[in-house]
Amino acid sequence: MTTLICNCNQTMPLNPEVLGQALDEDLTLHTTLCRRDAPAFQRACRSQDELVVACTQESRLFIELSEQTEGAVPLDVRPIHFVNIRETGGWSREAAQATPKMAALLAAARLPDAEPVSTVTYKSAGRVLIVGALDASERLAAMVADTLEVTLMATGGAGMQARQYPVIAGELQKVHGWLGAFDVQWQTDNPIDLDLCTRCNACLAVCPEDAIGLDYQIDMDKCRSHRACVKACEAVGAINFQREPQKHSEQFDIVLDLSESPAFEQHAHPQGYFHLPGGLQDSNAMTTVIKLRDLVGEFEKPRFFSYKQKLCAHGRNETVGCNACVEVCSALAISSEIKRNQIVVNPNLCVGCGACTTVCPTGALSYAYPRASEQGVKLRTVLATYAKAGGKDAALLLHSQEAGVALVDELGRAASLDKKTVRGVPARVIPLPLWHTASVGLDVWLSAFAYGASQVWVLMTGEEAPQYRNALREQMAVAQALLSGLGYSGQHFRLIEARDANALDSALDVAPAQSVKRRATFALQAEKRATVELALDHLMQDSAANRPAAESIALPSASLLGTIEVNKDTCTLCLSCVSACPASALQDNTERPQLRFIEKNCVQCGLCASTCPEDAITLLPRLLLGEQRKQLRVLNEAQPYQCIRCSKPFGTLKGIEVMLAKLSGHAMFQGEALERLKMCGDCRVVDLYSNPGETRITDL
Fold first, then answer.
1. d(CA 499, CA 459)
2. What is the pLDDT of residues 390-405, one digit of tens each?
3. What is the enclosing helix (H) or strand (E) of 29?
């Protein structure tokens, strides 16, 4: 492994000795690696060793220099890993104390890339539909028409006289699909047929109400039925007021929507759909045009999720229990398939936010790229290296790869110019980018704390869906309740909402919270519940000497941990809850009428409560301390009811009594028929055929 560090023209303090000891590598300090010291980079490019460069600003220059260096290892064989230690710490007010953080960031950059996963493929031939006023649509069309096949859907405006692009008009009714597979449906009910119209403007000239515009559509609110336009267009026949409304549907690869309101209601729009209400005046116009021009060909993205139906608590017997993933998805990529007791995820609509995996109580939905194990290795490496370099009270700042990185960089640059009023990223705060901030939850946060982090903060920059913020707040409330109940002082988990550098600077000025006495060494597991259990086991052992003397910790309602309470007065031990439980938390006893429970397995999905015909079950979120949490215990038991004919037990006393009480007034269950309900299944059949008082078919 070769690591190249540079103090960026002596603008930040670097300690190569301490960094080298933490990384187990001899480091050389450079001053202008991208200029005068570039030969050192070229020598490193010729080596087969993994290469880490502590500079992101000049990454493009370094890549070009590597490609031009004779004998350099090709980038597709040995990629270069770039890491930012300047804005994230070297330019802050506490830069002199930031060496442990820099070592941690360098150690994270030395880790191998995430293992590849299966991909989702999009194919686009470049057929783009631009929806909006004709004049605005045509200006945008001119910027992409050389690479894309443009069709315009007119919603007013004044178009060019020359027919350069196909134009359709009507009422847009529905757009659904994704890149390469958009299905657009609209209805035409205007008297002017644009396919027949020659744009001779004769109808505009003769219309006395000016009801016809240069979009060649008639405003029916202005039209007073003079029909002069029909006579003017007689030779062409493009105007017909008796034309019936017609529905149309066509396939497009890309949709550019200039309407005020987007065609999709969800927060995360599908790949290939762009909403640009301001047209070319919109601040994102040029960025959107560049993206559009590149959307021809075949594209791949990771399949961000994996789904295990056997762990899913969505439903049993067509009864819905947990619906958390369906409700939180901002892309409407998850739907219920309750007839099959499962959910369905559309990989083409999934944007990889991972919020569904965060709120999933069982781990049926898990984040696949990167995998949980890879996230765990990164967290453990970062925190272990930070501690090895002498760092204390580490706070992890989890942020997105785009807006989050930009905001952290903005704060670092502001601090470099004005350290008196701007603190910058504190020395103990370690920024870590994620594909999306909603992609990690309780299992990762608790594990990070167990690995030695004093606090875990998640940065929201305003780009996230509102339901993501709510879901993370709820999960953080559970995590904080757990640590507070275990006796750890301070606020360990925070959701930071900041849209500018000043707001972020203020939010990071927080005192440390109490950390673990002994750092954990367990690895994050593929299954979420297994990771949570490992973290809880470690934290309960670590806090055993100092935590309050309590049997359990009360948790918020959003908890995935807890127990159930059974009303013994109403429970008949029908055991329908046992068959509904997806986690085997509820179990029966083949030897006697008992309802048994393992609290460790309970995911608080509520399927047992919604299935119970007597409404006898209530959820109780909590963490039970002690070994009893992992052991079977009896929630309810009853005296067995014995068959009045053979004395074999076949039900519970309470269950049979309830059944007899409900059916005693029914005409079908009188006399001997009612007595037959007191028999087991075998004796009931024998009694039917042996009772001389029963009517037989031969008697008819």
1. 10
2. 999 999 999 999 999 9
3. strand 29-30
For the chain, the residue count is: 700
Please tell me the distance from the alpha carbon of residue 260 to that of residue 258, in angstroms, as a whole number: 7
The per-residue pLDDT for range 398-453, each reduced to its tens digit, is: 999 999 999 999 999 999 999 899 999 999 999 999 999 999 999 999 999 999 99
Give this prediction's pTM.
0.87
Query: Which secondary-structure segment (H or E) carries 120?
Result: strand 119-124
pLDDT band at 250 (very low <50, low <70, confident <90, very high): very high
pLDDT digits (tens, 9 = 90+) for 517-548: 999 999 999 999 999 999 999 999 999 888 88
Min mean pLDDT across 67-76, 251-260, 618-627, 682-691 is at 682-691
What is the longest distance spanned by two Cα atoms in the chain?
A: 112
CB-CB contact of 396 with 456 (8 Å): yes
Q: What is the mean pLDDT of residues 544-572?
A: 91
At residue 517, the 3 state secondary structure works out as: coil
Residue of 83, 132, 97, 43 lying closest to 428 (CA atoms)? 97
Instruction: Give the residue from 365, 398, 382, 381 showing the smallest Cα distance to 529.
Output: 365
Residue 86, token pair as written in the block = 């300047």
Query: What is the side-by-side order of every strand in the sheet holding 273-275?
Result: 167-169, 149-154, 127-132, 254-257, 273-275
pLDDT of residue 577: 93
Q: Which two tokens stand for residue 248?
A: 């149309």
Residue in the structure block whose two tokens are 């980038």 = 75
Cα 579 to Cα 595: distance, rounded to the nearest angstrom: 12
Helix (H, G, I), strand (E, B) or coil at 612: coil
Task: Give the SS3 label for residue 220.
Answer: coil
CA distances from 39 to 35, 66, 256 (A): 9, 11, 47
Would you state the pLDDT for residue 694? 65
Three-state SS for 416-468 is HHCCCCCCCCCCCEEEEEECCHHHCCHHHHHHHHHCCCCEEEEEECCCCCHHH
| b/e sequence 2-17, b meaning 16+ C-beta within 10 Å | bbbbbbbeeebebbbe
pLDDT mean across residues, the chain: 92
Distance between CA 449 and CA 516 in Å, rounded?
7
Q: Is the pLDDT of residue 318 over 90?
A: no
Q: Quick one: pLDDT at residue 698? A: 62
Tokens 């504190």 map to which residue? 426
Q: Which two tokens stand for residue 487?
A: 């006796």
Buried b (16+ CB within 10 A) or exposed e, 559-586: bbbbbbebeeeebbbbbbbbebbbbebb
CB neighbour class for 359 (10 Å; exposed up to 12, middle 13-18, buried from 19) = buried
Q: What is the DSSP string of 333-360?
A: -EEEEGGGTEEEE-TTT--S--HHHHH-
DSSP assignment of 271-330: TTEEE-TTGGGSTTHHHHHHHHHT--EEEEEE--EEE-GGG--SEETTEE---HHHHH-T
DSSP structural state of residue 115 = P
Sole residue written with tokens 């013994």: 568
Q: From CA 79, how far away is CA 68, in angstroms rounded?
A: 15
